[in-house]
């Protein structure tokens, strides 16, 4: 399909269904989940384990072939945790795997198929330890982690940093730094004074943003009809 052929009522109904599904079946698995969360196809988001806390305006985009998982492994008296700040975005295929602690700051952008883990999950010699070593991972505010990157145990990434696609991050990355490669190394410095425009700016007024998005969808779907949408599903033609 070249464009969205749904009538506006269908878009609104689908969005209401996703929100209701997330509230009924997903929200109870969080230790805390702030208001204004938007999870696309929430049935593809797995929240497993205790102590998973998220701030306001969480945004997750999933697909059936790109599920997202927030996983805390806490056997016995171990107290693993994932803590996510306000206005963070996670694309399809993201995995957060915590045996100890993963902390992600406000406004972070985590792109498709990123893995962030605080443990190797097996020792070099002891590969059956149910409580493998972990070291905290800390992702700062307004950090952007590119497609397919890997962030390993004990890493701290400073505010505003950018991690290049497919990078393997095994050492700390300073604030206001672009890092890339395997292993990731600094390749560029950002001006700490910016000015930066962040997801905190975008989502600072949730009601205003919702009104803007609704008007944008109404305009984009204007003229679409139920019969027209049905035709594109049953008898698609060139240009649809």
Automatic annotation (TrEMBL):
A molecular function (GO) term: O-acyltransferase activity
Bilayer-spanning residue ranges: none
Entry keywords, A to Z: Acyltransferase, Repeat, Transferase
Database matches in Pfam families: Hexapep
Xref: Gene3D superfamilies: Hexapeptide repeat proteins
Family to which the UniProt record says this protein belongs: Belongs to the transferase hexapeptide repeat family.
Name used for this protein in its record: Acyltransferase
Organism for this UniProt entry: Alkalicaulis satelles
């Amino acid at each position: 399909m070249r464009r969205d052929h749904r009538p506006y009522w269908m878009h609104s109904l689908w969005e209401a269904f996703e929100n209701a599904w997330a509230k009924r079946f997903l929200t109870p698995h969080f230790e805390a989940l702030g208001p204004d969360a938007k999870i696309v196809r929430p049935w593809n988001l797995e929240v497993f384990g205790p102590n998973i806390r998220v701030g306001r305006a969480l945004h997750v985009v999933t697909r059936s072939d790109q599920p997202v998982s927030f996983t805390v492994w806490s056997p016995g008296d171990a107290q693993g945790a994932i803590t996510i700040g306000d206005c963070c975005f996670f694309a399809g295929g993201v995995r957060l795997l915590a045996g100890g602690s993963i902390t992600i700051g406000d406004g972070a952008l985590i792109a498709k198929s990123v893995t962030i883990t605080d443990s190797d999950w097996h020792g070099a010699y002891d590969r059956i330890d149910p409580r493998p070593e972990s070291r905290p991972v800390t992702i700062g505010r307004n950090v952007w982690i590119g497609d397919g990157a890997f962030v390993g145990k004990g890493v701290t990434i400073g505010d505003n940093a950018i991690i290049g696609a497919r990078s393997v991050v095994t050492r700390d990355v300073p604030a206001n730094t672009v890092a890339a490669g395997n292993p990731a190394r600094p390749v560029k410095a950002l001006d700490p004074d910016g000015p930066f425009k962040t997801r905190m700016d975008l989502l600072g007024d949730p009601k205003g943003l919702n009104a803007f998005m609704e008007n944008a969808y109404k305009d984009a779907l204007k003229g679409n009809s139920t019969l027209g949408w049905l035709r594109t599903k049953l008898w698609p033609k060139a240009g649809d």
